Amino acid sequence: MPESILRGHCLCKAVQYVVTGEPLWCAHCHCGDCRRHTGSAVATFIGVDKERFTLTAGEFGTIESSAGVYRSFCSGCGTPMAYQADELPGEIHLYLGTLERPDEIPATLEVFCRERLPWLQLAVDGPSFEGLPVQEPS
To answer: How many CA atoms lie within 13 Å of 101's alpha carbon, on the beta-carbon side?
Structure first.
């Protein structure tokens, strides 16, 4: 079976990317920083292995929004594109809305629910966390 390929781009298509393989997860984030970066009530991300991610056109503009947290966007049209953190060096988190086929990847968890807007109700087939999920020791 051929390996899955996900493609995405910003609004003006100056920044484009490809991901080979399946996402690690798909999550809604309710934190205030993600709301501000997107200008929306919630941000939805897919997490992917950084080694499987390739920019195929353009470059990200990037800001360090807090210590060790980097938010990327298209410098031309302003589309929010990605999130990276020093604590997760092997991952890049891509905004679901930048995918060419976002309908194919349902969210399976929610994070930072303690910051969820009280009027927002989402259907998620998976767990909800007050902050980030705690990883269990192996």
So the answer is: 8
